[in-house]
Specification:
The protein has helices at residues 2-14, 62-75, 80-85, 88-95, 101-119, and strands at residues 27-32, 39-47, 50-59. It is an alpha+beta fold. It has a 3-stranded antiparallel β-sheet with strand order 1-2-3, with helices on one face. Bound molecules: FE2/S2 (inorganic) cluster (FES). FE2/S2 (inorganic) cluster binds next to helix 2 and helix 5.
């Protein structure tokens, strides 16, 4: 079963969905993983409070980039409130394989970027940021 998830990660890494940037994003957010410097940017296009378009760009390890690609698929068509309330677990379930603490940060880098974008920097609820606390 894990092999299937690994294949899925590799597929998203090699054939990223919704890669690129939007010319006039309603929301654009970008951040890096302080441990390695890898970066992710996410742009959202909204219509009537619904994510109509989403693009991601960046550079980084397979997990961070595949996770960003998966995240764009998860949120496309969702309302802004649904995106605000999206849990880490929904993304981690999609990634599907058990990850150690360092790899969890890779997988959640796009999540962190997205939440900062939809909530505003400094407004993200605590439960969405806890994996990022410095140990
Ligand atoms: Fe940098 Fe994964 S090693 S985000």
């Amino acid at each position: 079963m894990e092999d299937l998830y690994r294949e899925n990660i590799l597929d998203h890494y090699q054939n990223p969905r919704n890669q690129g940037t939007l010319e006039h994003p309603a929301i654009s957010s970008q951040d890096s993983n302080p441990l390695c410097g890898d970066e992710v940017r996410i742009d959202l296009g909204l219509r009537d409070g619904v994510v109509q378009e989403v693009k991601f760009s960046g550079k980084g390890c397979a997990i961070s980039q595949a996770s960003a690609s998966m995240l764009t698929e998860i949120i496309k068509g969702k309302t802004l409130d649904e995106v605000k309330n999206l849990s880490k677990q929904e993304l981690l379930d999609e990634v599907g394989i058990p990850l150690g603490p360092a790899r969890i940060k890779c997988a959640l880098l796009p999540f962190k970027v997205l939440k900062a974008g939809v909530w505003g920097i400094g407004q993200v609820p605590e439960e969405d940021t806890e994996e990022w606390e410095v140990e």
